[in-house]
Amino acid sequence: MSRRDAGRDRRSSEPKRGARRGRALAGDGGLPKYEPDIALRSIEGHLTRTGTQVMAWYRLAAQAWSFRSDSQREILIRQIAAQLGELQGRWLHLRVTTRPYPVHMWAESFDHNALGRMPDVAGALGWDGFLEGEQRHLMGLSMSDKEVFLGIEVSGRSMLDRWVERAAPVLGKVAPAAVRAELAALSSEVGHLDALVSGSGLDAVPASADDIAWLMHRSCALGLPAPRTLSVVPGGVGRWETEDLAAFTDGVDMHQEPYAPTVRVIGRLRAQTVSRNVAVLSVGLMEGLRIPEVDDPWMQHSDRLPFPVEWSARIYVRRPDEVAGELQRQMGKVRSQIRHYTHDHDLDPPMSLARQAERVLEVEDELTSGLTQLNTRLYGWWRIAVSGKDEAEAISRAQQVLDVYRPKVQVEHPEAQYRYAREFIPGEPLASTAYRRRGSVTWAASAVPAATASVGDRRGIMIGETCTATRRPVAWDPWLAQEVRRASGLTAVVGGLGSGKSFLTGVIVYKTLRAGARWTVLDPSGPLAQLTRLPELAPFSRHINLLRADPGILNPYRVVAEPRPEHFADEEDPERAWRRERSLAAATRRRLVLDVLTGLLPYDVARIPHTRIVLLRAVREVGGATDRHPGQVIDALRRHAREGEEHAGVVADFLEERRELPQAALLFPDTSRDDPWQADRDYRLTVLTMQGMTLPRPGSPREEWTDGEALAVELLNLASWLTQRTIYEADRNLRKGVALDETHFLSQVPTGKVLIDRLARDSRKFNVRAMFASQLAGDLLRVSGFASLVNAVFVGRTDDEEAQTEALRLLKVPHGVGYEQMLGTLSPRPRHDDRPDDTPRQFIFADGHGGVEKIRIDLEAPHLEHVREALDTNPDASRVSARGVPAATGPAAVRAPDEPAPRHAPLAPPVGRFVRPGPDLGSDLGDDLDDEFTDLDDPDGLLTGDRGGPGGDASDHYGRPGPELRHDEHLDLAGDVDPGDDDSVHGGNGHAGLDQDRVRAAGEAVR
């Protein structure tokens, strides 16, 4: 109501009410009208309104750029260009801002996700201290996430539109159909834009109320420190009236001194007055960039800077008819100039003029052929804003921006900084048409503003930070794949010597233990055993040196877990499923015993076909029950020898000799003792080591292994099988982990491959994160199905070219496009640096759901200094205070009990939400298991006479005979050992003192 109307009403009512003339009535007629300092007038949902324009705002999804092939990157650019081309005739406002990494949100998610964590230990680092230390460390890193918003003009607002909006309450009563039609038309257009930008490329979603509030705050308070938290409108309210916009503008003042190179922004932050100087730059002339072949997206260059950078771009997508007319005029100018040179002065035109004419013709051809969306032209203005605590720091940062874009992109520092800074606020007019850039939508799309480093999740442990163009924390939940995405828990850790595989494994094991997981770690060399000595882990841990453990701890019949009936309660036929799984477990034990005993034999005996035959018959006679042991197989061989099988006696003699070795006692149990694994279920961490064991050189052929090395490989295989016992004996819903080192030897053992495959397939069903560490990715790729089942991959420094290609295959990223060289540059170290190499290691991390980035492992937080020292494997003489006396004292010297370990009191059972029905061991198994049992009974077809392949010697990595050799074939094996060749008998194959007579007897037995 106008003031005149209000006064007229008051005058007409005064005589009736007997009031004095001129007396004002209660109401809002005399209130002052609020006018915002900005052009924006209202916000409704993701729509913003000014006096002349309505824009819809969207939040763009982050786009991965690293470790993608050029063809994949070109497809992304074309998809973005096609979406921009559909916006012809519209103004766009692109805003790139940053948000501090939400440490408090991560901490809440991590704390909520830490289910069943272990109790605190008095005097040691507790859970609250651990979580607080992680948060403080993250806050000190000052890392942020990039957020990209795109505003799209919905419609221009004429004077009639503005009048209709003001009169909407009245028109809604007089002509409601007209108002509904106008609102429906606007809603239809917004819905069309929502669907258009949601496709692949921009992958945009309508901005939420929180997003709009954050964007307005970062724009109106340009350059001021971002608050950790931001209060927005209450939930369910998505509309800001004109008066509500004061929440973004009050308390912020922006002003500029005459001719000053920066604008000063003053505001309130956490009840304190804060000021910053902001320098606004504009993108100028640009050379022809080759994206993606040579150059990165040009807007991504600013991500390399160690301080936040704000972007604002105003873009107008032109209609083809507008461009065609301009091209005709431009072509006419160029032709006139060429004619002026050639006809008027008989001179050759400059080459620059010829290039202009050629380019005009190319653009004209683009507009008249091919996909119209990709050839659409646009023009726009790209502004960059950086801030500093004072003018000097702001100018210094502006200079760094100029340097990072040189020499291909010219960045200008214009005058009128105040008006340029206001451009960053949604709805504000363009400050100046200076530095306008023209190009195609493909050129604009090649900036890829949403390109960033995105890997990991927001609820797992902190393992490090990205070290590419964008620096972000990397959190990873090892059980997210199994519990949420229904994927495998298989993880590969690959890298050469000194690449940091053990350190990375220790970081993951320690932090997930604190969060409630259970781990069994096989670390042959032993550095990870230091984790069991940490005060907060010692009461819940045990370290077992297998080479000093009780006899029989690696009995092949005991390392394979026995299925439990309760695991199959949810099957259609629980009894049948349980018996089926028991048969498979028994067949696995028989195959494991057969491989282990064959591996214990000298190479010259193991390669005789009849050796495997007599062993297979003895193993089948003993059976596959859990109460058997390898000594019974030797007894069966003796019985067969007495029955006329001479070669069985030869094999038994060799096995008896191996049985006398100290390490071989681990295979043969002492029946007078209790089962050493009877009480192992109360431990959160079990570390198995084999310190003192000598493994063969990786890649060396089987015939070059010594007796000790051959035995070490078999013990490593059995120890690996031992780690999986706890998986099948615990509740399948508990979060469990298995970490295996030196797995490149497992890939050479048939039963080792079976173990890897079994852990890979059962990891999802039993909620297991299985980590396999190896020096070469090719060792893991040789396991059938490993590449298709692997979920997460860590690749450290790798120098060999072939190994680099295989590592990229494991990462599932393109090879042959230049990424191989990057693997050789991980964890760089100065050549002439004599200091200890304790710098954090770098890895290429594939998180299993699309993210692949280069990361840096971080364990530098002060509260984890004792963990860092425990995982430090570098030798240091200063750690020894006297000869043979360690210098470590105090809590850090607490040691977990070695085997045999005293029995601890049972830990408190998990809370009720962990207890669920038992595991389903057979639900994912096919109907071909009966055939698999037959294969395990006679895997090489030696008893049935079946050949496994056509022709040739198909021996495995041990030199064991393949299925093509029949036991009744005439084969002169005595000639394989030359009595006169000492190297072949004593030194060549490493078997000192080999009995040549028994080898000849083995050959005669075949005849």
TrEMBL record:
<dbReference type="GO" id="GO:0005524">
    <property type="term" value="F:ATP binding"/>
</dbReference>
<keyword id="KW-0067">ATP-binding</keyword>
<dbReference type="Pfam" id="PF12846">
    <property type="entry name" value="AAA_10"/>
</dbReference>
<protein>
    <submittedName>
        <fullName>ATP-binding protein</fullName>
    </submittedName>
</protein>
<feature type="compositionally biased region" description="Basic and acidic residues">
    <location>
        <begin position="1"/>
        <end position="17"/>
    </location>
</feature>
<feature type="compositionally biased region" description="Acidic residues">
    <location>
        <begin position="925"/>
        <end position="940"/>
    </location>
</feature>
<keyword id="KW-0547">Nucleotide-binding</keyword>
<feature type="region of interest" description="Disordered">
    <location>
        <begin position="871"/>
        <end position="1007"/>
    </location>
</feature>
<feature type="region of interest" description="Disordered">
    <location>
        <begin position="1"/>
        <end position="30"/>
    </location>
</feature>
<feature type="compositionally biased region" description="Basic and acidic residues">
    <location>
        <begin position="954"/>
        <end position="973"/>
    </location>
</feature>
<dbReference type="InterPro" id="IPR027417">
    <property type="entry name" value="P-loop_NTPase"/>
</dbReference>
<feature type="compositionally biased region" description="Basic and acidic residues">
    <location>
        <begin position="994"/>
        <end position="1007"/>
    </location>
</feature>
